[in-house]
UniProtKB/TrEMBL annotation:
Belongs to the RNase HII family. This is Ribonuclease. The keyword Metal-binding applies. PROSITE patterns: RNASE_H_2. One of its GO terms (cellular component) is ribonuclease H2 complex. The lineage of its organism: Bacteria, Bacillati, Actinomycetota, Actinomycetes, Micrococcales.
Amino acid sequence: MTVVAPRLTLERQLLRETPLVFACDEVGRGALAGPVAVGASVIDAAGARRRVPEGLRDSKLVAEARRPDVAARAADWVRASAVGWASAAEIDEVGIMRALGLAALRALAAVEELGFPAASGVVLLDGNYDYITPAGGRGLNVRSVIKGDRDCASISAASVIAKVARDAEMTRLHDDHPVYEWGRNKGYASPAHRDAIRANGLSAYHRRSWAIADAPTLF
């Protein structure tokens, strides 16, 4: 199967009317353990004239060994980037969609601290549902883009940056909880992960509101 590289068609169109495009994508929505992460990237007209970094794709299409290098080049390419987080406890408290919105707003707040307020541009969000506005982003111009992580280079950049950051966090958590093999499964529902939950119970990093033990395998 031929994998088409993401383009800047939508970003260039929007940048005729706005000075900045912000792009967001989530990682970890379907995991059983660990936080969700939302990456945010910022691109301007000058950046949109530069070549898309070689190998940039939706993070799911980039081999794990290559992701850190691709993420580093993506971060160098965009004007700014950040990752926002929502913990497993927050997911249990407010639900996964609100937690995604909180993580996205935290990522956007982080790039605003770098001098790029999201209210000054358009926010592109991968998927078909705007989870940012209901979480408190009502002053933002959010546009959901189906398959945006595949087609829009700015969203692909946010995707791979978030994926590398979350994988690193799950590897770090693995050191304290090796029985769950998070270094390998990154908190998703692998058979070994589910077996470890049945044998050892839940950790503080598991999403306790979910029906975890009998959750379907997600990869």
